[in-house]
Write a structure and sequence with these properties.
This protein has about 325 residues and is α/β, with parallel strands linked by helices. Helix content is about 30%, strand content about 25%.
Length: about 325
């Protein structure tokens, strides 16, 4: 009996070893748990969208004369253009019409510039301009229409013409409006346009031409209008016209820049008119994440550079 038991045990072990060495069928393999390969869990970081706001830009008079003398029509933006075009949107107040037959001029208050001066706007990555100001119409409606056409040929949009302009970056839609309040008051039609525009975009930026020239403090009516514009739906107000930098504040958590001062101009007769401010706004998921003011100064005719001395604390 012991002999048979021993032989039975030997046969059983041999069979077990034999079956173990045979390859599994495809059906058997599929029945085994699969090996799962995982990748590290990388958080989905929301893209940052940088918007730059700048003040008054006047490309005529001595600004164009100087550019022509140098044979460089990007001259006004040479020292700031690289930083500007590294952003996603650049928004300026264009203080002159751009027309083919702009007469050469060095003085006076009837502004214009030739299409050659568009080179500076494209060099610095300007995406949209405000034309709601007291000089865009210096050559009438025909001059405005020619300006819009020439800008469009360079891929630059224009606002301040009574309609919302929308620029989309990533998944965020930015709306732009412009109002000239130097010769009239903010009215219900303006408020309605702001309210309607707010419903169509994620971020609404409003350029406002207002205030008193060569003053440092906003007027009481600017404060009143700023609150009305914000309550109507604006997310940012970019002010201009005084040619001096004025203060800023937040209303309902929304930034208001009463005047960004001059950006490119030929008002070299005072320190204040040679100063300006650029604002960098960072948006994430359609919300303002951070902001920073950058001081600028024009030591040469109509050519700004960044000034550390003018940077806000």
């Amino acid at each position: 009996m012991k002999t048979f038991a021993f032989l039975y045990l030997v046969v059983a072990i041999s069979l077990a070893l034999l079956f173990r060495s045979l390859p599994l069928s495809q059906d058997k393999k599929s029945a085994l748990p699969a090996k799962i390969t995982t990748t590290p869990n990388v958080s989905d970081k929301s893209p940052e969208i940088k918007v730059i706001l700048a003040g008054d830009v006047m490309l005529g008079r001595t600004v164009e004369t100087k550019s022509s003398e140098l044979g460089d029509y990007s001259y006004p933006f040479r020292k700031v253009g690289e930083r500007l075009k590294g952003s996603d949107i650049v928004f300026i107040n264009l203080e002159n019409p751009i027309i083919e037959d702009c007469p050469e001029h060095s003085g006076g208050y009837k502004f214009c510039s030739s299409p050659k001066m568009l080179q500076g706007l494209t060099f610095s990555g300007v995406d949209i301009v405000n034309l709601a100001n007291n000089h865009a119409g210096n050559y009438g409606q025909e001059g405005i229409e020619e300006t819009i056409k020439l800008l469009a040929q360079k891929g630059i949009a224009a606002t301040g013409l009574g309609e919302l302009v929308i620029l989309k970056r990533e998944d965020t839609s930015f709306g732009f409006l412009g109002f000239d309040l130097t010769t009239r008051n903010l009215d219900e039609k303006d408020i309605s346009l702001i309210h309607l525009s707010n419903s169509k975009v994620d971020v609404l930026i409003v350029g406002v031409h207002w205030g008193v020239e060569y003053t440092q403090t906003p007027t009481e009516i600017q404060w009143i209008w700023a609150k009305e514009i914000i309550l109507a739906g604006a997310d940012v107000i970019a002010g201009h016209h005084p040619h001096w930098v004025q203060g800023s504040e937040t209303i309902e958590g929304k930034p208001v820049y009463y005047s960004l001062g001059n950006f490119v101009f030929d008002q070299m007769w005072s320190e204040r008119t040679k100063e300006g401010e650029i604002v960098e706004l960072i948006f994430k998921d359609g919300q303002l994440d951070s902001s920073r003011g950058l001081g600028i100064y024009m030591p040469s005719w109509g050519q700004p550079s960044f000034s550390e001395a003018l940077l806000p604390d």
